[in-house]
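I have been asked to look over a protein record a colleague put together. The record follows directly below this note.
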Amino acid sequence: MKPLKRLFSAGVLFLLPAVMFAQLKVGFVQSERIRGEYDEFKEAESELQLEFRKVQFEFQTMTARLDSLKGAFETQRLMSSPDRRREKENEISLLDQQVKNYQTQKVGPEGELYRKQLQLETQIIQKVQRAVNKVAIDKGYDYILDSVSLLYGKPTHNLTDDVLYELRKISDEESNNN
């Protein structure tokens, strides 16, 4: 009787994970599709592109002015008095430092553009997370994965449309509250 009991126990232990896994409900979303179809992602990217172009234009204007000053200094350096040369060198040095500071302040790792991008992404990611959570709870899913590393997903478990629907509802609710 003991060997039969052991065999039964081993069988139960072997099948238990399969039975438990069979009860799990797993879905997936295509984050790239959400990024491409959700209007707030598009608006945020457009806003960031506009800001970047403004900063780029200002930077190019500053560097053109610096290059012009350097060129004028080089052509007139020999004909200028020592005081005038030092004055121009200081002016060039000051403008060069301003260009570097501007670049660091706007596009550096701690710059305004980086902070703005992080802020916009964080807001959108929080909305996406709320939408995913709502879909998971409403439809009884235990796990929802991102399809980025998913090699295969049964189309019936693709929840991207549901998440996009919830995101649009969240956006509409926020619009109505403002």
Summary: Residues 39-76 form the longest helix (38 residues). Helices lie at 2-23, 31-37, 39-76, 82-107, 112-139, 160-177.
